[in-house]
Amino acid sequence: MEMMIDFPGGARVDAHFGDFIVQTDQPPVSSAPTPFATFLASIGTCAGIYVLGFCQQRGIPTEGIRIVQRMHSDPLSGLVGKIELEIQTPPSFPEKYLPALVRSAEQCAVKKHLEKPPVFSVYTQTAG
Q1: Which residue, 48, 49, 55, 116, is CA-closest to 86?
Q2: Which residues, other chains included, contact 46 with Cβ-Cβ below 8 Å and sequence gap of 6+?
Q3: Is the per-residue pLDDT at 128 higher than 90?
C-alpha cells in the first residue's frame, strides 16, 4: 500500500490513498483533526469494527453499544502510556458473550501493530 502525503496550505497535511483523503490540521485554527488525534481515533474505531462484526455474526443488535477510549499520558514525557477501551453494553446484551466481545476487540489490527511496531525508514528523494 502506498499513500501520498501533501501540504494543501496553512498547517494542513493530507494523506491520499485509493479513493480516500484523510485531512489533518494543527491548532490554533483547525479545519480537521490533528494527525495524532486521527491516529488515536484509529485505535477505537478499529476495535469498533471487530465489536460490530462480532455482534452482526450473532444477530446481536448494536443499539446501545459504544466504546469509550481513554488515553493516559505520562506527565513528564507527554507520551501516551496507557489506552483503555471500555466497551459499554446495554442491559439486554447477553452476558455470556461479554468475555468474547472483549476478545474480539483485542483482535484490532491497529492494536496488534502497536504491540509489534514496524521498522521505520525515513529518507529524502529528489522528485523529478
Answers
A1: 48
A2: 108, 109, 110, 111
A3: no
Question: 48: closest CA among 58, 34, 62, 32?
Answer: 62
C-beta of residue 43 within 8 angstroms of C-beta of residue 83: yes
Q: Quote the pLDDT of residue 29.
A: 85
Q: Give me the CATH code for the 33-115 domain, please.
A: 3.30.300.20
Count of C-beta atoms within a 10 Å radius of residue 65? 17
Q: Determine the number of helices (DSSP H) and then strands (DSSP E) in the chain.
A: 3, 5
Say if strands 4-9 and 80-88 run parallel, antiparallel, or are unpaired: unpaired
Q: Where are the domains of the chain?
A: 33-115
pLDDT one-digit tens code per residue, 70-92: 999 999 999 999 999 999 999 99
- Residue ranges of the alpha helices (H) in 18-121? 35-58, 98-105, 109-115
Q: What's the sign of the alpha-carbon dihedral 58, 114, 6, 123?
A: negative
Give dist(CA 5, CA 122) in Å, integer.
14
Grid cell locating 82: 496507557
